[in-house]
Specification:
Layout (H helix, E strand, L loop, with lengths): L1 H16 L8 H26 L5 H24 L6 H23 L4 H22 L1
Helix pairs in contact: 2-3, 2-4, 2-5, 3-4, 4-5
C-alpha cells in the first residue's frame, strides 16, 4: 500500500511538472522566429498565387490551413515560454506569429478572394521580414 501511495505521488508530481512553460535560449528563440518567418514567406507565395489565379481553391484552402496551424503552434510556444533577458524579443516573436496565423486563417477562409489574397501577400511579406529580424 505504501509503495502504491509513493508511486501515485510520483505520478502526480511528474504530471504537474509537465505543462509548465519552457525556457527559451537565444538560439531556441531564433529557431522559433525562423519557423514564423518560414510560415509567413510560404504563405506570401501562396497568397501571390491566389491573387494571380495560379492555384486551385482546394490547394489554397488546405495549404493555408496547415501553415496557419504551424504558426499557431509556434505562437503558443512563444506565448507560454520564458526567455530570461529576451522577453521583449519573445513578445515580438509571439505577436508576429499571431499576426501570421491570422493572415493565413483569412486566406484559409477565403481561398478564392484574389483581392484579399493580394493584401494578405503584402501583410505576410511584412510579417516574414519582422520575423527575419528576430531570427538574426
Amino acid at each position: 500500500m505504501r509503495g502504491l501511495l509513493l508511486l501515485w505521488a510520483t505520478v502526480v508530481l511528474t504530471a504537474a511538472g509537465c505543462g509548465g512553460s519552457a525556457t527559451l535560449t537565444e538560439h531556441s528563440l531564433r529557431k522559433e522566429a525562423e519557423k514564423v518567418q518560414s510560415s509567413a514567406a510560404e504563405g506570401a507565395l501562396l497568397a501571390a498565387d491566389v491573387a494571380r489565379g495560379r492555384t486551385t481553391e482546394p490547394f489554397a484552402r488546405i495549404h493555408s490551413g496547415k501553415l496557419a496551424e504551424q504558426a499557431k503552434r509556434v505562437a503558443n510556444v512563444l506565448r507560454t515560454a520564458k526567455a530570461p533577458g529576451l522577453e521583449a524579443d519573445r513578445r515580438r516573436a509571439a505577436d508576429t506569429a499571431a499576426e501570421v496565423e491570422q493572415s493565413l486563417e483569412q486566406l484559409h477562409s477565403a481561398p478564392t478572394d484574389r483581392v484579399l489574397a493580394g493584401r494578405l501577400q503584402h501583410a505576410l511579406v511584412r510579417e516574414a521580414a519582422a520575423a527575419g529580424k528576430l531570427a538574426g
